[in-house]
Amino acid sequence: MKFHYAISGDDYSQAGLASTDIKKKLKEKGVLPQFIRKAVVSMYEAEINMIIHAGGGTADVELEDDKIRIVMTDTGPGIPDVEKAMREGFSTAPVFIQEIGFGAGMGLANIKRNCDELEINTVPGKGTIIIMTIYFYDQSQNECP
Ligand SMILES: Nc1ncnc2c1ncn2[C@@H]1O[C@H](COP(=O)(O)OP(=O)(O)OP(=O)(O)O)[C@@H](O)[C@H]1O
Ligand SMILES: [Mg+2]
């Protein structure tokens, strides 16, 4: 199954709608709650980032029996130093954003923790593509003891 969402960059009241819709689809599909949580947390953080830092964008989701792949694309300012941006506590969010409860610098670290695979392609001045994959089975069970 494939889903496409346009994420508006100027309406904070719409923030989180795409990830909430995906949560519904995952529940309908009968995906286990721990995997729903990982997928929805990751997508929500990327969705909010797209609204706050990049003026909106699009989300393309591919839902399969064993995994979900979420591609978030924006044409915002890009991330000049990804390694730095991934650090907990690093944020460029302005004060008015902090006042509405965002900008703690926790989003990307949270995404990293919850995704099984994470790819960030970003070009300063052009935009950012974030690709997140979550598997619906316990990865550790495939590892050698
Ligand atoms: N899509 C994006 N486009 C441009 N810059 C981004 C994007 N996503 C993240 N960033 C940059 O990376 C920084 C860290 O992002 P992160 O999500 O970790 O924290 P935050 O959004 O600032 O705060 P929080 O997520 O805790 O509300 C942001 O402050 C911003 O500078
Ligand atoms: Mg964030």
What does this structure look like?
With 145 residues, the chain is of the alpha+beta class. The chain has one domain (2-137): 2-Layer Sandwich (Heat Shock Protein 90), CATH 3.30.565.10. 37% of the residues lie in helices and 27% in strands. The chain has 5 helices and 5 strands; from the N terminus they run E-H-H-E-E-H-H-H-E-E. It has a 5-stranded antiparallel beta sheet, covered by helices on one side. Strand 4 and strand 5 (127-135) form a beta hairpin. Helix 1 runs antiparallel to helix 2. The radius of gyration is 15 Å and the shape is globular. The model has no long low-confidence stretch (mean pLDDT 94).
- What's the number of helices? 5
Helix proportion:
25-40%
Largest sheet: number of strands, sense, barrel closure? 5 strands, antiparallel
Number of strands: 5
Low-confidence stretches: none
The total tally of domains equals 1
| Name of the CATH class | Alpha Beta
CATH homology superfamily: Histidine kinase-like ATPase, C-terminal domain
Provide the residue-averaged pLDDT.
Answer: 94
Strand content: 25-35%
H/E element sequence: EHHEEHHHEE
Question: Within the largest sheet, what's the order of strands?
Answer: 1-2-3-5-4
Summarize the structure.
With 145 residues, the protein is of the alpha+beta class. It has helices spanning 17-29, 33-54, 82-86, 95-99, 107-114; strands at 2-8, 56-63, 67-74, 117-123, 127-135.
